[in-house]
Amino acid sequence: MHPRILHDMSVDNLGEREDRWSAAMSLDYAPVEVRATAGKIRPGSNYLARQDLEDFRLLELASTTCSAQRPRNLRRNDAADHVALIFVGQGHETITVGGKRARLSTGDAAVWDPTLDTLFEVHGSVLKYNLLVPRSALRTVGASSTPTSGILPRTPTTRLLVVLC
Question: What is the Cα–Cα distance from 54 to 90, expressed in whole angstroms?
Fold first, then answer.
């Protein structure tokens, strides 16, 4: 089951693309400040698609070179009720959370706590899936509802999850 496209940001106008990304992320994920790179954009290369799965939400994000920052002034309670499992389907990006920097590439998976200061830097084209998991669901199964953000080890389970998304 793949999410349906809700927001298309595949426009050449830099300001409009940044505004569309900021609006889509605020509406369906977590508010961020987006800075894109100028240039010709291929149709269908920048989008956010969403699929709600009961109380979970699956987001498919495709982007070209850009950065998205979630600084303190944007960290409201809007995203505090979930954590994100990030699966990189193709491409690579750098994520800096709480001063710790990590590179995510095709096949990598990570956990992200959206209540922390975060900078995402996309290098080239990236396709990734973010599964938003309610903190209440983590508590229900006895897991910490405040997991540490970071890259998950490349195990058969994480590889399977990346493929399934």
Answer: 27
